[in-house]
Amino acid sequence: MKHINTQQLTEMNNRYRAHLINSLSGFKSANLIGSVNTQGQTNVAMFSSVIHLGASPALVGFIIRPASVPRHTLDNILETKQYTINQVSEEFYIQAHQTSARYSREHSEFQQTGLQEQYIHGYDAPFVKESMLKYALTLREIVPIALNNTQLVIGEITDILCPETVIQEEGYIDIESLKTTSISGLDNYHTSHRLSRLSYAKTDSMPRSIALDGAKIATTS
């Protein structure tokens, strides 16, 4: 097994190190974040750093890069306090990836990639019409991370859009049925293959496979 130490990491080519370190955290969710400024200029950008922070209140976070590069998404969110998160499926992952190109502020990634804007009543930030699981958020807090000058943007979910059929009886959303993609490294896209759902872990027994809806123990052949 290869052993890479701190000195070797420091001496690596920057791009090589970026690919290497970005691979270590495993599969990451692929999401498009939609936003708009007060002049009505829309923006949509790919993020692989979206994380669940809590269910009550319903909080989600994502990481914004340092200010050394343009941050149209953050600028828009600071102006309007609104944004959307849209899961990427295999039908449009190439268009979604293209949103990471460095378009100028005046050129909406929606228009440049062919993705379509979608809106709900009373909310200005655009959803991605092609996405089958998406939600609107209101900005709640931005936490600076001094170690690398990034920022954790925290929003509270206000609206969720998805097919009713994918929501199981106890609330679990079957994202695999939506052909949701994930990312490894910087640019590798994947679809998933479910192994099973498992019962709640207890100290006196090993977990067992349960049905997708969580209502009963799944039968095994």
TrEMBL record:
InterPro entries with a match to the protein in the record: Flavin_Rdtase-like_dom (IPR002563), Split_barrel_FMN-bd (IPR012349)
Domain of life of the source: Bacteria
Domain Flavin reductase like, residue spans: 31-165
UniProt entry tagged with the keyword Secreted: no
Sorted UniProt keywords: Flavoprotein, FMN
Cofactor(s) for this UniProt protein: FMN
UniProt-listed Pfam families: Flavin_Reduct
GO molecular function, one term: oxidoreductase activity, acting on the CH-NH group of donors, NAD or NADP as acceptor
Family designation: Belongs to the flavoredoxin family.
Official protein name in the record: Flavin oxidoreductase
Lineage of origin: Bacteria, Pseudomonadati, Pseudomonadota, Gammaproteobacteria, Vibrionales
